[in-house]
Write a structure and sequence with these properties.
By secondary structure, this protein is mostly beta strands. It has helices at about 10-15, 155-165, and strands at about 20-25, 30-35, 45-50, 55-65, 65-70, 80-85, 95-100, 110, 120-125, 135-140, 145-150. The structure holds zinc ion (ZN) (2 copies).
C-alpha cells in the first residue's frame, strides 16, 4: 500500500479543520484524518489498527445477522482498507449499514449520491470535532462518491479537496466509497 501524493489546495490549509492534520512524508505533503466521531461523541479512530503508521478509522458494518469491522486509511486520497470480513461479488450492490462500534448509533443519513449511475439515497456521515464539520460518503459498496464539509471553506475549495479523495477509484477494493 504505497502512498500516492496529490497536491492539496493552499486555500484549504488556511481553514484546516479540527480533526485533520497536515503531514510530511517522503518529501510530500498529505492531509490525514486525526479525529472522527459518532453523533454521541465516541471516537471512531482505532489506535490498535494502524495503516501507514497512523490510527485508522474504524466503523462497524451490519450485514444481515453479522456485524463486521472495517478499518479505513486516515490518509486523505488513499483508499487502503483492512476488513475483518471478506466481501464477495454477490454483495457488490450492497448498501452499508454503518454504526458506531462503541454505542451502535447509526452513522447513516439521508442524502442523494452524486455519482453517475448510483441510485443510493443514503450516506455515511462521520463527524469532525468542530460542530458542522463532517465527512460523508455514499453508503453503496463500491461507489466512489464522498465529500468533506468544513465551515469557513468555500464550496470550490471543499470540492477540490473532495476530488483528492476520488483517487483510487477503479481498484478492486469493494468498499471504495470512503
Ligand atoms: Zn458512539
Ligand atoms: Zn453512490
Amino acid at each position: 500500500m504505497e502512498l500516492i501524493h496529490r497536491s492539496i489546495p493552499r486555500e484549504f490549509l488556511d481553514v484546516l479543520p479540527d480533526g485533520m492534520k497536515f503531514v510530511h512524508r517522503h518529501g510530500n505533503e498529505f492531509l490525514v484524518v486525526e479525529e472522527l466521531r459518532c453523533p454521541n461523541g465516541h471516537s471512531l479512530m482505532s489506535d490498535s489498527v494502524r495503516i501507514h503508521d497512523e490510527p485508522s478509522i474504524g466503523i462497524t458494518i451490519h450485514r444481515g445477522e453479522s456485524r463486521n469491522r472495517i478499518y479505513i486509511d486516515a490518509f486523505w486520497g488513499s483508499h487502503a482498507k483492512l476488513f475483518d470480513f471478506l466481501i464477495d461479488d454477490t454483495h457488490a450492490t450492497m448498501y452499508a449499514d454503518a454504526v458506531c462500534p462503541t454505542c451502535s448509533v447509526s452513522l447513516v443519513v439521508h442524502g442523494q449520491c452524486g455519482a453517475a449511475g448510483c441510485d443510493s439515497e443514503r450516506r455515511i456521515k462521520l463527524l469532525l470535532p468542530r460542530p458542522g464539520d463532517f465527512i460523508s460518503a455514499c453508503n453503496r459498496l463500491g461507489c466512489p462518491d464522498h465529500m468533506i464539509v468544513v465551515g469557513g471553506a468555500s464550496p470550490a475549495v471543499t470540492a477540490l479537496v473532495s476530488e483528492i479523495n476520488f483517487f483510487g477509484y477503479g481498484d478492486d477494493e469493494a468498499f471504495q466509497g470512503i
